[in-house]
Specification:
The complex is a heterodimer of chains A (811) and B (234).
Chain A: H1 2-15, H2 17-45, E1 57-64, E2 67-69, H3 76-80, E3 86-92, E4 97-103, E5 106-115, H4 120-123, E6 128-130, H5 133-136, E7 142-146, H6 147-154, E8 163-166, E9 169-177, E10 189-191, H7 193-201, E11 212-217, H8 223-246, H9 250-257, E12 260-266, H10 270-273, H11 287-316, H12 320-328, H13 333-370, H14 379-405, H15 409-414, H16 421-457, E13 467-471, H17 478-482, H18 487-501, E14 505-510, E15 513-514, E16 518-519, E17 522-527, E18 530-539, H19 543-546, E19 551-554, E20 568-572, H20 573-578, E21 588-591, E22 596-603, E23 618-622, E24 635-640, H21 645-660, E25 668-670, H22 671-678, H23 680-714, H24 716-724, H25 729-763, H26 774-800, H27 804-808
Parallel strand pairs in A: 5-10, 7-9, 18-23, 20-22
Antiparallel strand pairs in A: 1-2, 1-11, 1-12, 3-11, 4-5, 4-8, 6-9, 7-10, 8-9, 13-24, 13-25, 14-24, 15-16, 17-18, 17-21, 19-22, 20-23, 21-22
Helix pairs in contact in A: 2-11, 2-13, 2-14, 2-23, 8-9, 11-14, 11-16, 11-23, 13-14, 16-23, 16-25, 16-26, 23-26, 25-26
Chain B: E1 2-12, E2 17-28, E3 33-37, H1 44-51, E4 59-64, E5 67-68, H2 74-84, E6 85-88, H3 100-110, H4 115-128, H5 144-156, E7 162-166, H6 174-189, E8 193-197, H7 201-204, E9 209-214, E10 217-223
Parallel strand pairs in B: 3-8, 3-9, 6-7, 7-8
Antiparallel strand pairs in B: 1-2, 1-4, 4-5, 9-10
The chains are: A alpha+beta (811), B alpha/beta (234).
Chain lengths: 811, 234
């Protein structure tokens, strides 16, 4: 039996090489798309999967009014010591530190250093190669390192007990752990002294939200009790105190200023369902993006399956006679169905292989696109692949097989094979659906293109050209800072003087912020009843002018005015709006602890964060005005002249490594390039959509061509008769192409609706967005219609040139 | 072998009702060679199709080997057909995409005959019909007469109890047509039961009995006297 089926299957392939190849290609592209999406999905879902504590470990998320933070205060921990529902708690930071690691003469900058209390390995039980989780960070001088760092510094020797230098301190290595599974906290180096010290100084500070607090619950169902308990602590120690100071009742205070609400977020939600964006050092996955990728790839797969089904059922008519004969000779319906399903199985099998080949080749580009490191492996993946295989065979093979097996023997043998009404209807509605999908993609890619171009060309409010940002690892002397000696600023001024002497350097500036990444701190500023969380933009004289940031009214901070380093500030337009100020110049705003500042100007809004983000309220003051802000300075900005940039930079490097920082390697970046990277994700989305668009349109066009060919060939006899009766070519052309124009239009109408809604939703991601206009819709319709007409008319023209006699001599 | 009583077949479309067979009765005994003749539209092909279990009747009774066939489900009909009936068509109805060997082998496959036996049987019957040298070719490469012989081989390979032939010589010239009719005669003299539909008096003269039909009814039944030179030997 199989041999017989195989013979005829091969015969058909040999005689329809082009169509078979295109069919397989179409299916493989669809399958490849879904495979990509599956790999991405698996990877994102694998974060923290390995961690047995993922249900029990929770992060404390504070909400104040509508703002949610993963940062909390130091005092809470002590009140949780004896709580019956809390097994333990662990303070740490939500971010990685970076510093120099030195051992045996070898120095390397570690980018993922982590500061925490010592329960970390209890919550994140990484397997240990040397030492154990319990002892690795048991005291302040212990350090635990990852396998990667161990190999880089120690080769094969036993590192336990060895002394290394990290940053300014010496530590003893007490543990080496394996860090190769995906985890939301995945440091390379773990120490405890930093948090211990900070915590000790913060046991009474209820308003300094510096820490990340992880809590391990005994019983997860009692989560709410713990949340409520922490909320009560805030009421007791913060809100009641404020109420007393303001001399109003607790209820009044809550009414005016709101209340702190607490959420305990379990680790299992961290990657894809976190309440905040900045809670985890390894970042959060973009769930929306994941869903989009999955949705798009499913659409494309459906498109190719529809193609396959349409072709198979249209092709069935060519094989009607064969089926009729088989049935006469004793084949049951089941035999026929099995025969045709097995043909589908073979085709899908080849398609999957081709798909995997496509994925393998394109994986590097895909990884670059997503900024990930996906690989084809894993038993879960192969299981999913088998599922995809079964699904495609079922969807693509079952209906055509059923359709074919229902051919009535007599009818097909006589040659009066009338296609059933339902068969035609189904095939045509699938064609319409294909059009709808193609329309969706064309509109989608047009709008995405428009939006991203709009953002790319938007006036950012500052000019970053020819300005480089140099990583500045300032030396902090905590004792001197306490005495308000502002060492950071003094050191900066020395560096600035030296830099200004270099030929090619035209200006130097600094501030605790980075273009594209934002400001490093924010504080509460009030004006009458209104208050804002203003970004602290402490600057040097001339910094704003260097970045060509413009003023709406007033003047820049300048050395000429003494009060410019004492209590004068500038605010941006957003701050002005949010504070409800009409004429801000000369008025005063105050911080949470009562310090007053006078406003001397309003700065025009500029995009410190990516162009898709809303502009935050900002308060600008001189670095000397609030000394502690200097500690957040991480870069020095240098404007260089356009000619001879290379020489200028190399001179800066020489100066830097000898006079400014002798330890760290010189590292810099161009501000405009760095900024562009901040929204490269959206540029990538635009490119992906355009690529998908081309693929989708190609698949849809192929489907249309094949379907039109087949259905026209069916009508050859009718056309022959019409010709004999005197029909002219263009009348025939119109007759043949009419129905496809109608299908195209219906498909357009169907595709427009989801395109509009889904793209509106996508545009909501952006603070600055275009309005959806008619233009992309018109383009989609016209281009699709145009392509349809070309294909259909080309085939129709070919058909009208037939030899009439050949088709009339029938019976 | 075949007992048909009051068989009717009505074709209904949306507006028109056509009475293709109108209460026909006839009997065919084992070993008979019967031909059915009549003008176009007389219902002879319809009758043949019902006898061959390719079509169902609207009324009456049709018994094949003492089993009632009217009212049987598709599955059972298919089973009865593949076990008992061999078909020969006017336009051969060979599968062009398969070789001659594969075409002949097909009924054996559907009857679940093991593969070693299949090869033997195909070669045997191909030899008997004089087409062994064409087994690897495709139908389009054969002449009309050879194609019909392939079709006959296919019809016979399962040793069917009855052979149904629908205008077997219709697409053949007189020489080839003659060969086919002699083939059928040969089969008949070896004991086969044959029911043939034909337009040609000449072909009908090869059979024992001729039934004339018109407008869905049996007009007459005639026994044929055959002009055969019988060689009587001791």
């Amino acid at each position: 039996m199989l041999k017989n089926w195989t013979n005829i299957f091969l015969y058909h392939i040999k005689n329809n090489k082009l169509f078979t190849a295109l069919n397989i290609l179409g299916l493989s592209i669809g399958i490849a798309g879904l495979v990509f999406a599956t790999l991405y999905w698996n990877e994102e879902h694998s974060y923290d999967e390995w961690n047995p504590e993922k249900d029990n470990v929770h992060m404390v998320i504070n909400s104040f009014n509508t703002v949610k933070w993963p940062y909390t205060v130091g005092p809470i921990g002590q009140y949780l010591e004896n709580d019956p529902n809390v097994e333990s708690y662990n303070y740490c930071y939500n971010w990685y530190d970076s510093d120099l690691f030195t051992y045996n003469g070898k120095k390397q900058k570690i980018a993922k250093a982590f500061h925490t209390q010592n329960k970390f390995f209890d919550y994140f039980p990484f397997p240990f190669i040397f030492g154990s989780g319990k002892n690795a960070i048991k005291d302040d001088s212990s350090i635990a390192i990852s396998e990667r760092i161990y190999k880089a510094f120690f080769g094969n020797e036993n590192p336990i007990g060895k002394q290394i230098k990290f940053g300014n301190n010496f530590y003893t290595v007490r543990g080496v752990y394996k860090n190769d599974l995906k985890s939301s906290f995945a440091p390379d180096v773990v120490v405890t002294n930093n948090v211990k010290k900070s915590l000790a100084q913060s046991l009474d500070l209820w308003e300094t939200f510096n820490f990340c607090l992880l809590i391990k619950l005994k019983d997860n169902s009692k989560k709410e009790l713990v949340e409520k308990k922490i909320e009560r602590l805030f009421i007791e120690h913060v809100i009641k105190v404020e109420a007393k100071e303001a001399n109003i009742s607790l209820e009044q205070e809550i009414k005016e200023n709101g209340i702190v609400t607490i959420n305990l977020e379990p680790l299992k939600n961290a990657r894809l369902n976190s309440l905040v964006k900045e809670g985890y050092p390894e970042g959060v996955g973009n769930y929306q993006y994941l869903i989009i990728m999955l949705g798009l790839s499913i659409l494309i797969l459906i498109l190719s399956i529809i193609n396959y089904v349409n072709l198979a059922t249209a092709n069935a008519i060519k094989r009607a006679k064969e089926v009729g004969v088989r049935k006469v000779l004793g084949a049951s319906k089941r035999n026929i169905i099995f025969q045709f399903i097995s043909e589908t199985i073979v085709i899908v099998f080849f398609s999957i292989f081709l798909a995997l080949a496509i994925v393998e080749i394109s994986l590097p580009y895909y990884n670059e696109f997503l900024d990930k490191d996906l690989k084809i492996y894993g038993s879960q993946f192969y299981l999913q692949l088998s599922f995809i295989f079964g699904l495609v065979v079922f969807l693509g093979g079952f209906f055509p097989a059923l359709y074919i097996s229902n051919f009535e023997t007599l009818k097909v043998l006589k040659g009066n094979f009338n296609r059933s009404r339902t068969g035609i209807w189904l095939r045509n509605s699938m064609l319409v659906f294909q059009f709808a999908i193609a329309v969706f993609f064309i509109i989608g890619s047009a709008i995405v293109y428009q939006q991203v171009t709009y953002l790319s060309n938007k006036d950012l409010g500052f000019k970053g050209e020819q300005i480089i940002e140099i990583d500045y690892l300032k030396k902090i002397d905590p004792q001197a800072e306490k005495e308000n000696k502002n060492i950071v600023f003094q050191n900066y001024m020395i560096a600035k003087e030296g830099l200004n002497k270099i030929k090619g350097v035209s200006q130097v500036g600094t501030g605790p912020f980075s273009f594209g990444q934002g400001a490093r701190s924010s504080s509460n500023y009030q004006f009458h009843d209104a208050n804002i969380q203003g970004k602290n933009m402490a600057v040097d004289f001339g910094m704003m002018e260097m970045m060509k940031i413009r003023l709406k009214e007033g003047r820049y901070l300048s050395e000429k005015y003494a009060s410019d380093t004492i209590n004068n500030v500038m605010i941006n337009e957003t701050a002005m709006k949010l504070l409800g100020m009409k004429e801000p110049i000369g008025k005063e705003i105050s911080t949470g602890n009562g310090v007053k500042f006078k406003i001397i100007s309003v700065v025009k809004d500029f995009n410190l964060y990516g162009p898709q983000e809303k502009i935050a309220p900002m308060v600008f003051m001189h670095l000397k005005t609030i000394p502690w802000m200097g500690q957040n300075v991480n870069s020095i900005y240098v404007k260089v002249n356009a000619d001879n940039i290379e020489k200028t930079i190399s001179d800066i490097e020489k100066f830097w490594t000898t006079k400014v920082d002798t330890e760290y390697p010189f590292s810099y970046d161009f501000v405009d390039k760095k900024y562009a990277r901040s929204f490269k994700e959206y540029v990538k989305q635009k490119n992906l959509f355009s690529l998908l668009n081309v693929i989708v349109v190609l698949i849809a066009i192929f489907g249309l061509f094949a379907l039109a060919s087949f259905s026209m060939e069916r009508r050859l006899r009718e056309i022959a008769i019409r010709k004999t009766l005197g029909a002219e070519t263009n009348i025939l052309l119109k007759e043949l192409s009419k129905q496809y124009v109608i299908f195209c239009s219906i498909g357009f109408v169907i595709g427009v609706v989801p395109a509009y809604f889904l793209l509106q939703k996508w545009l909501e991601n952006f603070a600055y967005r275009i309005d959806i206009q008619i233009f992309p819709f018109a383009i989609a319709f016209v281009s699709l219609l145009f392509l349809t007409l070309i294909i259909v008319l080309a085939k129709a023209y070919q058909v009208t040139k037939i030899d009439v006699l050949k088709y009339l001599k029938y019976e | 072998m075949i007992k048909i009583k009051n068989l009717s077949r009505v074709f209904r479309t949306e507006e028109v009702e056509t009475m293709a067979l109108s209460e026909i009765s006839l009997t065919i005994k084992q070993g008979d060679f019967v031909s059915i003749m009549g003008p176009s539209g007389s219902g002879k092909s319809t009758l043949l199709n019902i006898v061959g279990l390719l079509d169902s009747a609207s009324g009456g009774s049709y018994q094949l080997l003492n089993q009632e066939m009217i009212g049987l489900k598709e599955k059972e009909k298919s089973k009865a057909r593949k076990e008992n009936i061999g078909f020969i068509f006017q336009n051969f109805n060979l599968i062009d995409e398969l070789s001659v060997y594969d075409n002949i082998e097909l009924p054996l496959i559907y009857n679940k005959v093991p593969s070693s036996e299949r090869k033997k049987k195909v070669e045997e019957i191909a030899d008997k019909l004089g087409i062994s040298h064409r087994l690897k070719h495709y139908p389009q490469q054969l002449s009309g007469g050879q194609q019909q012989r392939v079709a006959v081989a296919r019809a016979l390979i399962n040793d069917p109890k009855i052979i149904l032939a629908d205008e077997p010589t219709g697409n053949l010239d007189s020489k080839n047509g003659n060969e086919v009719m002699e083939l059928l005669t040969d089969l008949h003299s070896n004991g086969a039961t044959i029911l043939m539909v034909t337009h040609s008096d000449y072909d009908a003269s090869f059979s024992q009995r001729t039934i004339h039909m018109k407008d869905g009814m049996v007009l007459s039944e005639k026994t044929n006297s055959r002009n055969v030179d019988v060689l009587i030997s001791q």
